[in-house]
Specification:
alpha/beta, 219 residues, single chain, disordered N terminus, 6 strands
């Protein structure tokens, strides 16, 4: 028997994605947008033990409804453990990877294991589970140290000789691993380098600007 696929069937077919770090500031916004698009089954993964405590915000309201309807699910995942990543990644089409932003820079070993080893583990899990696409959230600080403007920058742009802190150095290493993994074993990878991210739910950047303005240090 031949089964014909109609345009309506294609339109209603949902793909599955994993958002590692899905309860962070940027992760919440990404999850909300994916749910709004409606074409995704979203697996929210995060390492925080309290990461599924939702609030009345618009993004969390969307997530709460999606959890009830089955459009979303949650899984506690430690990226230092490849087996945990594999569990949440099986059957996914795309993995979005965002690391925690509240790491203690005094603990180099833990930062290395989460950022660099975590990137290795995510790549290996994607290969193991035959994931087609991996999107990694890096940082503009990888290439921008404040000493000069970047105009029409591309991948050939030379990174600074010295990074402003350890976390940026480690993210540079992780980014390199993600980029090197591109187009190997059927996995396509992409690295994003956002600058100052802000918006609904921001508790850092805009409040910082407000405090600087109140102190007369910014206009």
């Amino acid at each position: 028997m031949v089964v014909k696929t109609t345009a309506n069937d294609v339109a209603t077919e949902k793909r599955t994605c994993v958002v590692l770090g899905g309860r962070g500031f940027l992760g919440r916004s990404l999850v909300a947008r994916l749910l709004q698009l409606g074409g995704w089954i979203v697996r929210v993964a995060d390492s925080s033990s309290h990461s599924l405590l939702t609030d009345p915000s618009v993004s969390d309201s969307l997530l709460s409804n999606a959890l009830c309807s089955g459009q979303a699910s949650f899984c506690h995942v430690d990226v230092r453990d490849t087996s945990q990543i594999i569990i949440v990644t099986k059957g996914a089409d795309v993995v979005f990877y965002m690391e925690p932003t509240d790491l203690d820079i005094r603990d180099f070993y833990n930062c290395y294991m989460i950022i660099v080893q975590g990137a290795k583990n995510v790549i290996n899990a994607c290969r193991e589970c035959k994931v087609r696409r991996l999107v990694y959230n890096s940082s503009a600080d990888i290439v921008f140290d404040g000493s000069r403007d970047i105009l029409d920058g591309d991948l050939s742009f030379i990174c600074p000789g010295k990074f402003k802190d350890m976390l940026i150095d480690l993210k540079f290493q992780a980014e390199g691993l993600i980029r090197l993994a591109n187009n190997i074993d059927g996995l396509l990878t992409c690295v994003l380098r956002p600058s100052n991210v802000f918006g609904p739910g921001d508790t850092r950047f805009v409040p910082l600007l407000v405090n600087l303005a109140k102190a007369g240090l910014a206009k």
